[in-house]
Amino acid sequence: MMNAAGLGSRMTSSTPVLILGAGYQGKVLYDLFSESGRTVLGFLDDDLERIGSSHVGLPVLGSRDSVDAVVSELEGAGSGVELALAIGSNEARQDAYEFCIDQGLPISQAIHPTAFVAGTAIVGPALQMMAGAQVGAFSHVGANVIINSAASVDHDNRIEDHVSIYPKAVLNGRVVVEQGAYVGSGAVVLPGITIGERAYVGAGAVVTRDVPPDTTVSGVPARVH
């Protein structure tokens, strides 16, 4: 974990990036790193038909299984490398994160220049924050979390590992989002609510009570479906 001062040092990292995932999320991260002045060397993807092709003009160099060889080749050519996980599914992104940790592969944070993290907030490794996203005072954000464009995580929140918060979601103060949960686009979570593990909050929902693990809620007010 690191506070905002540590986050700032990562935001200005000049280490080149290799993006794991040559899909739509890969395009988003490519754009983010480009705007941040980071060099993207290429992509990895487990769709074998994509290997050897190009994505946004950059090569798809191999699959996750070949990451050691690809990284060694790039480092041998004089490039230090960090990986970025362009994977929307929480479960699949967790699997990739744990694979990289087990292999000792460094994972980059991906923080858009317009994102904001309060100085008293603490954030974990492999955090992704898109344009206009915010993390408020004294909040704790775990590992491998995605906070999408214009999403707001207010004060004293606890966001556990491998969570996705979609665009323009609003988490008011003292919200807890447990591991692997999703908060949909434009959803509003009222103060003090807990979203259980692997739960899914639908787009536009207004959450007024705790959400049990492994459930889907939607509507105004949000109800289990």
Task: Kindly describe this structure.
- With 225 residues, this protein is of the alpha/beta class.
- The chain has 2 domains: 12-107, 3-Layer(aba) Sandwich (Rossmann fold); 112-219, 3 Solenoid (UDP N-Acetylglucosamine Acyltransferase, domain 1), CATH 2.160.10.10.
- It is built from 4 helices and 25 strands.
- It has an 8-stranded mixed β-sheet with strand order 7-10-13-16-19-22-24-25, covered by helices on one side. It has a 6-stranded mixed β-sheet with strand order 1-9-12-15-18-21.
- The radius of gyration is 17 Å and the shape is elongated.
- The N and C termini lie far apart (35 Å).
- Mean pLDDT is 92; it is low at 8-12.
How does the SSE layout of this entry go?
Elements: E1 2-3, H1 4-11, E2 17-20, H2 24-35, E3 40-44, E4 54-55, E5 58-62, H3 67-76, E6 82-85, H4 90-103, E7 110-111, E8 116-117, E9 122-123, E10 128-129, E11 134-135, E12 140-141, E13 146-147, E14 152-153, E15 158-159, E16 164-165, E17 170-171, E18 176-177, E19 182-183, E20 188-189, E21 194-195, E22 200-201, E23 206-207, E24 216-218, E25 223-224
Keywords, please?
225 residues; alpha/beta; Rossmann fold; six-stranded mixed sheet; 25 strands
Largest sheet: 8 strands, mixed
Identify the CATH homologous superfamily of the largest domain. Hexapeptide repeat proteins
Helix count equals: 4
The whole-number mean of residue pLDDT values reads 92
Strand order of the largest sheet: 7-10-13-16-19-22-24-25
Number of strands: 25
Number of domains: 2
CATH class term of the largest domain: Mainly Beta
Tell me the span between the first and last alpha carbons. 35 Å
Strand coverage percent: 25-35%
CATH topology of the largest domain: UDP N-Acetylglucosamine Acyltransferase, domain 1
